[in-house]
Specification:
alpha/beta, 9-stranded mixed sheet, 8 helices
Length: 328
């Protein structure tokens, strides 16, 4: 397990119909922090970028005033990503350091992450980055209650952006935040009014997205259930054998993959000083990567599960029996 090459992170911007993600994206594209970003969107004409377009780079790709590339993702996402990469390599556009993909309002972000993780043409160039989900403060609570797609998008999120908060009563926003946390207690919640850069591009030169939000948990690991999706954290101090752990995880995902939306966290491995970044999406386990050091110098495995009808007790029992047995 060697150090991963300098891969290009692919961020996913999702959100239910009418949530405001296209408005958010249009505003962000004019910011200088996006200058080294390639943006893939579903319907180019809907974003309203005419005033931002500087020149056409190819038939389907334009260079915006901010310096970033923007194009339509089309049906074959892998081919589009490779086309953008080869365009960069030929010097036909800016040397982007990240990609943002905006999905449609009813889309499941999981297939995008799975594609990056499993397609051999892509995973030597790109890495699956964080998922940012936009939720409408006015209609978000109702959409979450009524539509499984909205709940699934929330369950996949690393960051949740609440839009239109200035148009909604404060108590409605408070209820919405509680609803979001009941589905995905590990997601960071921000709003468009006080957070001009929800991706955090201005805060870091080179993103290491898999390490984001996997270790800032307080209190005892817990799980909550709302609208059939919940999240919990499993923590343990015992170092694990990676082959044994990954075999257990693959069997778990094979048996319960349709119930498990995401698995992410940091692992303490036997014979390795650095923390290993763990990420899986449904039945796919991402290749292991490492952080240079442990956050706050605390060596402790912490794994976040976001799933339907799965309890922390069941995971802890299975881990103790099949992975940690004899290592206490």
């Amino acid at each position: 397990m060697s150090q991963a090459p300098d891969l290009i992170p692919v961020y996913v911007l999702t959100g239910f119909l009418g949530s405001g993600k296209t408005t958010l994206l249009g505003r962000l594209l004019a910011r200088p922090e996006f200058a080294d970003t390639a943006v893939l969107i579903n319907e180019f004409g809907e974003v309203g970028l005419d005033h931002l377009i500087a020149r056409e780079v190819t038939e389907d790709v334009v260079l915006l005033d901010s310096g970033c590339l923007c194009c339509s993702a089309g049906d074959d996402l892998a081919s589009t990503l490779l086309e953008l990469y080869h365009l960069r390599q030929r010097g036909g556009g800016p040397a982007f350091t990240r990609v943002v993909i905006e999905t449609s309002g009813l889309a499941d972000p999981a297939p995008v992450l799975q594609l990056i993780m499993t397609d051999r043409r892509l995973n030597t160039i790109f890495e699956a980055g964080p998922v940012l989900t936009v939720v409408d403060a006015i209609n978000g609570a109702e959409n979450i209650a009524r539509f499984a797609e909205a709940r699934h998008q929330l369950g996949m999120a690393d960051t949740v952006v609440i839009s239109k908060g200035d148009l909604a009563p404060p108590d409605l926003v408070t209820v919405l935040e509680r609803q979001i946390k009941s589905i995905n207690s590990q997601a960071v919640i921000v709003d468009t009014e006080t957070t001009p850069d929800p991706f955090g591009f201005s805060d870091r030169k080179r993103d290491r997205p898999h390490a984001t939000h996997t270790h800032n948990h307080s209190g005892h690991p817990h799980h909550e259930h709302s609208a059939d999706i919940g999240s919990f954290v499993v923590e343990f101090d015992t170092d694990v054998d990676w082959p044994r752990f990954v075999k257990w995880l693959e069997l778990l995902l094979l048996a319960r993959g349709k119930s498990i939306l995401r698995v992410k966290g940091l692992l303490a491995l036997s014979g390795e000083d650095r923390p290993m970044v763990l990420q899986a999406v449904q039945t796919m386990v991402y290749p292991p990567q490492f952080l240079p050091r442990w956050p706050d110098d605390i060596r402790r495995s912490q794994i976040v599960f976001i799933a339907r009808d799965l309890s922390a007790d069941a995971i802890e029992t299975s881990l103790a029996k099949h992975v940690l047995a004899g290592k206490q």
